[in-house]
Amino acid sequence: MRDLPTPTQPIFDSLPTGQNGHSARRRLPRQSDSTHAAPAFSVAWARHQDEVEEAQRLRYKVFAEEMGARLQTTTPDMDVDMFDAYCDHLIVRDQETLKVVGTYRALPPHQAKRIGCLYAESEFDLVRLNHLRPKMLEVGRSCVHRDFRSGSVIMALWGGLGEYLQKYGLESLLGCASVPMSDGGHYAASLYRQFAESSLAPIEYHAFPRVPLPVEDLNQTLEVDPPALIKGYLRLGAKICGLPAWDPDFNVADFLTLLRVRDMNPRYARHFLGLK
């Protein structure tokens, strides 16, 4: 693992400042912001295996216990797969309890080359994105504890990813954004219809699902609102790379999402990357 910020040093302390010279950390809730104290968080990259395992336990709690995913793991009560050893793991802690309440994992280009593939390739043909690989970060397994889903934790995680992109000169962010299929897929199909109207990537950046969700056989006319994570990606300036894939183990539809740093919404570029 490379030289990354220490887990005792909140990553927002080292984020670039914006146009007005204010650190991105100042945007996070503080106890003095209101009469009712908001949770305080620290954000850092795991440097030890025990910290990685904390993230894996949170992932298991969210994906297996809460969502009912059938995880291919050999470690009880932990979500572990072959990519974890090659990834850097971003964790958010609740400063009151010191428990990990949010996590992302990041697979940088040189580690993707070592393992020989991206996680997304198990679900999509990515041939049209090959030219992006040398400076592309794949992210995934993002989750937030059910008691901390007000938005502050995911903002903290995105701030950490923004610092990572800047630190290593990366130009794009790729990840699978999951949508539940508890209704048989109609919600996901209606989301795709909505994305097709306004949020699809240019055709040269399309990916092709290996097990596509049969949107043509589903109801695409529902008035739906995207999940908070996808909505956030789109606000950042991300695009959807085509039809969703069906992941039977997680029983979700996965939308491949691509964010080019140069296409990032200027407001968020200033906030997370310190860019003008």
From TrEMBL:
Keywords: Acyltransferase, Lipid biosynthesis, Lipid metabolism, Transferase. Coiled coil: none annotated. Its EC number is 2.3.2.30. The keyword NADP does not apply. InterPro entries: Acyl_CoA_acyltransferase (IPR016181), Ornithine_N-alpha-AT (IPR052351). It catalyses: a (3R)-hydroxyacyl-[ACP] + L-ornithine = a lyso-ornithine lipid + holo-[ACP] + H(+). Residues 1-33 are annotated as: Disordered. Pathway: Lipid metabolism. The keyword DNA repair does not apply. It comes from the Bacteria. Belongs to the acetyltransferase family. OlsB subfamily. Catalyzes the first step in the biosynthesis of ornithine lipids, which are phosphorus-free membrane lipids. Catalyzes the 3-hydroxyacyl-acyl carrier protein-dependent acylation of ornithine to form lyso-ornithine lipid (LOL). This is L-ornithine N(alpha)-acyltransferase. The lineage of its organism: Bacteria, Pseudomonadati, Pseudomonadota, Betaproteobacteria, Burkholderiales.
